[in-house]
From TrEMBL, chains A, B:
<feature type="coiled-coil region">
    <location>
        <begin position="39"/>
        <end position="66"/>
    </location>
</feature>
<dbReference type="Pfam" id="PF18146">
    <property type="entry name" value="CinA_KH"/>
</dbReference>
<dbReference type="InterPro" id="IPR036653">
    <property type="entry name" value="CinA-like_C"/>
</dbReference>
<dbReference type="InterPro" id="IPR008135">
    <property type="entry name" value="Competence-induced_CinA"/>
</dbReference>
<comment type="similarity">
    <text>Belongs to the CinA family.</text>
</comment>
<dbReference type="InterPro" id="IPR041424">
    <property type="entry name" value="CinA_KH"/>
</dbReference>
<protein>
    <recommendedName>
        <fullName>Putative competence-damage inducible protein</fullName>
    </recommendedName>
</protein>
<feature type="domain" description="MoaB/Mog">
    <location>
        <begin position="4"/>
        <end position="170"/>
    </location>
</feature>
<dbReference type="Pfam" id="PF00994">
    <property type="entry name" value="MoCF_biosynth"/>
</dbReference>
<dbReference type="InterPro" id="IPR008136">
    <property type="entry name" value="CinA_C"/>
</dbReference>
<keyword id="KW-0175">Coiled coil</keyword>
<dbReference type="InterPro" id="IPR036425">
    <property type="entry name" value="MoaB/Mog-like_dom_sf"/>
</dbReference>
<dbReference type="InterPro" id="IPR050101">
    <property type="entry name" value="CinA"/>
</dbReference>
<dbReference type="InterPro" id="IPR001453">
    <property type="entry name" value="MoaB/Mog_dom"/>
</dbReference>
<dbReference type="Pfam" id="PF02464">
    <property type="entry name" value="CinA"/>
</dbReference>
């Protein structure tokens, strides 16, 4: 099956936001084996939207529309689709009730416009919006499945994952339940991962195994089909075991987990506090953790020690180490990790020191990074990376490696 | 004039990257008064690309294609456009020479594929690629201007700004030189900025004044047309003075300057070093500065003090202040800024303390932020913000306010 994604919204055409919805949906569709051939972006304009829908129905099995479901008169996605399909618009009572309750709770007057958000296309499968007001819709015609989703990513993403994906898997399975699970790997390239499980990818047809690489991470989507759903999950379990026996040391999470969410979750679960000493990453590691709500119970803080002077005076790395081994060294990374742990009275100290570039430092080329890790009274460890690419690529990649090391260590304890 | 943007590349359809090129180009085109009606994304497929070009030529004055100019056989943008326009492909000698020199310098063998990158469409205006290999192109047909740009943003952006924009402005000016300048404002909303200069926007036709808001910043693009280019610049100067007399205190930069680039540049120009004490921003301020190459001459470092304990023990904020005024207070912000300045032996200390959310803290609602600033021996200052929106929105916005305060202070000194 193939799909196209039509995003509706003038803010996209003015360059105020990037079409990250299309990126997200494309990634998820690829994972379940649906090919995306086209993205389209148009403004809040009924004629151009109708043109796009007309074209899209001719050539695509699945047409996903994002945006234009809001309360204003600019929002016209469902109106245009309803007109095109010759269907009526009807009130969706559960959505209306939720919107009314929202306004009562907020102590605000509900305008007539807000009722418009609860209106849906007759005969569609309605997806209740748990993170906003406008519900989503699924409508199947002779040739094509239309999916209408709200524009804000925080409403669209959970709706797609929780409500739309099962419907699409069902379409793919032609009635048979299809279930799927994503395995997330770090520290292994796509080519290497594929090579190590090539025989499984080639011979396994149920579940299918679909690899996808992005941003230093690789995922495998396992999708299984069986008349009995429990059996489908068992098929996935069995294959997962075969895969993990070979590359399990690179697994960090499943489904929607991210490195930083997983790290924060493990810190909270193990009740371990952490502090970071950051040179080339300059606060990026702490800041990434700081983005997670509730992280203040485990993130004590850290020091950005961009200069040797601050490594010595603020963190307490002995001058002799800086003189003999240099700031970009295993010894310095370990000193930084151990001292930051003590200084912040934390269970875990992590450190990043290296060469962001563009110039070399202490004779080390850009991309040379040492990550130190000190956990409670366990012996400290340090890892050296040789990262390629630009300054900020190296910084971001170093933080990901740090998170992965942290996850691996917490899982072992 | 209206435009559409066609991005070519299967990596976009797999969700590996977002189409940030379209966002960038849309923003820049809006600034010079060109309306963008459509974005398109297709994979590396000649038939679908030809379809898109055929449709686009019928309806758009300007068609911008990004991507597909690389060395592999998947890259077929120029081949497809040449075929569609019935033109030949020819070798661009300056580009070939630069590619050859690159391989000699790198000590690597140049493959035949790399020669392919220097091939251009006959009769096109060729844009030399200063940040990569594949040149860009401009081709005018009876009805439409085609612009071909490389896909990597770091190659595409400077080429568009430096080479393509003057050509498009010339098209807009119908032969008369059109020049333009972007004024960048912070700390003022789009609606307020427009109200304060409404009479100028309404009455000024040369230069035109085009406002654009995104991400907490507002820009004004002034575009002037005159047979004599110097006169066109004078028209811009005159209007700029009128605007700045009213809202000059919110100006932070011109053209492509960003808050963080401008702050780094001023720190370097004034030879002022800086250290940051960060609570809710958790290292984001230091990390943003750390993204700028060469910033190590002015960024000393900082402390992420996520807990009251670390504000006291690592930075030295007196317990009495934390007890009586709290961590989210003017006094705490100023203490943090002054003490971090001393601790890192820097000229400037900046601090961020507040409530990221989702929960309240010390009775303050999420979005309450104090920013402290201490510069040399000048009296310290602190600024309170009441930011709306989600946790990470508040953190990012707080960092922008900090950068803006820093810029204002450095400009005054």
């Amino acid at each position: 099956m193939n799909a196209e994604i039509i995003a509706v919204g003038s803010e996209l055409l003015l360059g105020q936001i990037a079409n990250t919805n299309a990126q997200f949906l494309s990634g998820r569709l690829a994972e379940i084996g649906i090919d995306v051939y086209r993205h389209r972006v148009i403004g809040d304009n009924a004629d151009r939207l109708e043109e796009e829908i007309t074209e899209a129905e001719k050539r695509s099995d699945i047409v996903i529309l994002t945006g234009g479901l809001g309360p204003t008169k600019d929002d016209l996605t469902k109106e245009t689709v309803a007109k095109y399909l010759g269907r009526k618009l009807v009130m969706d009572e559960p959505s209306l009730k939720a919107i009314e309750e929202f306004f009562i709770k907020a102590g605000r007057e509900m305008s007539v416009n807000n009722r418009k958000q609860a209106i849906v296309i007759e005969g569609s499968t309605v997806f209740f919006n748990r993170h906003g007001m406008a519900p989503g819709m699924f409508i199947k015609t002779e040739s094509t499945c239309f999916v209408l989703l709200p524009g804000p990513p925080r409403e669209m993403k959970p709706m797609f994952l929780e409500d739309v994906t099962p419907v699409l898997l069902n379409e793919l399975g032609a009635g048979q339940p299809v279930v799927s699970r994503v395995l997330r790997f770090f520290g292994i390239g796509e080519a290497e991962l594929e090579t190590r499980i090539e025989d499984l990818i080639d011979t396994q047809k149920n579940p299918t195994i679909a690899p996808l690489a992005s941003d230093g991470e690789v995922t495998l989507r396992l999708s299984a089909k069986h008349a009995v759903e429990g059996e489908a999950w068992q098929l996935i379990e069995d294959t997962e075991q075969l895969i993990l026996a070979r590359v399990g040391q690179h697994l960090y999470g499943i489904n929607e987990e991210t490195l930083v969410n997983k790290a924060a979750e493990l810190l909270q679960r193990e009740s371990k506090t952490i502090a970071a000493a950051e040179s080339l990453t300059a606060g990026l590691f702490a800041s990434e953790l700081g983005a997670i709500a509730g992280v203040s119970s485990v993130l004590k803080g850290g020091v950005v020690c961009y200069t040797n002077e601050s490594k010595r005076d603020v963190i307490g790395v002995p001058q002799s180490i800086l003189d003999t081994e240099g700031a970009v060294s295993e010894r310095c990374a370990i000193e930084m990790a151990e001292r930051i742990k003590q200084q912040f009275n934390a269970n875990i100290g992590i450190s990043f020191t290296g060469v962001a570039g563009p110039n070399s430092l202490e004779g080390h080329p850009p991309g040379t990074v040492w990550i130190g890790l000190s956990i409670d009274d366990y012996p400290s460890t340090a890892l050296m990376l040789s990262l390629r690419g630009e300054r900020n690529y190296a910084r971001i990649r170093a933080v990901k490696h740090g998170l992965f090391q942290l996850i691996r260590s917490l899982e072992k304890k």
